[in-house]
Design goal:
Blueprint lengths: L10 H8 L13 H4 L3 H6 L4 E10 L6 E7 L10 E2 L2 E3 L7 H13 L6 E6 L3 E2 L4 E10 L12 E8 H4 L6 E7 L2 E7 L10 H15 L1
Length: 211
């Protein structure tokens, strides 16, 4: 099936695009250092912790949305930031896909039975010393969430069309450790600012599947 036969920004179109990502998935070509080359020194200076996130595209009848969380302010890492559900890969996880699905269930109560894994993106390296495997999934609508408020303050959906529109990808910079660092910002609403690692993964998704 060609993508031209599918509705733009539908879950079916996303599934078709995701199927073209065949790997390999453990390169160092993607990450925060792509936007700020100086971060490569930080990434190379310490061991990277393995993690996985789910990019959950909700299959609504007209156009798909992406399910995102807002992390609680009490967390030590990336507190208060908008994020994909996910976390560290544990020894019990056979694959990054297993880790992403387990963390999604633990964080927001979305069961595996609602999620169809449709692909993977290359690993994304972060300045906070994580190697993140972005797992692509299509979610059947009609789910009921059970949010773990020790980790998540809010769960919300953003239209896939908005996130894959490069006009909404704004590049900003900030001074961190006396150096200017660059990052992407895709602010959807004032209290739901999508930036940093999450925006970086979305930008990679755009570059590889929608550009």
């Amino acid at each position: 099936m060609e993508s031209t036969a599918l509705s733009p920004y539908s879950a079916a179109d996303f599934r078709w695009r995701a199927a073209r990502e065949t790997g390999p998935f453990r390169s160092d070509d993607h990450g925060d250092h792509l936007w700020s080359p100086e971060i490569a020194e930080l990434i190379g200076a310490r061991p990277l912790r393995e993690a996985a996130v789910l990019v959950p595209v909700v299959d609504h009848p007209h156009e798909a949305t992406v399910l995102l969380t807002k992390r609680t302010e009490r967390l030590r890492s990336h507190s208060g930031q908008v994020a994909f559900p996910g976390g560290r890969i544990d020894p019990v996880d056979a694959t990054p896909e297993d880790a992403a699905l387990r963390e999604t269930l633990e964080e927001i109560g979305l069961p595996r039975s609602q999620i169809e894994i449709v692909g993977r993106m290359p690993d994304y390296l972060t300045g906070s010393a994580y190697r993140i495997a972005p797992v692509l999934g299509v979610v059947r609508p009609g789910f009921t969430l059970s949010v773990n408020h020790d980790e998540v303050d809010d769960v919300f959906e953003v239209p896939l069309r908005f996130l894959m529109d490069p006009g909404n990808h704004h590049r900003h910079s900030a001074i961190w450790q006396e150096k200017e660092r660059f990052y992407y910002d895709m602010s959807f609403e004032p209290q739901r600012r999508i930036w940093g690692v999450t925006a970086g993964i979305l930008r990679m998704l755009y570059n590889r599947l929608y550009k």
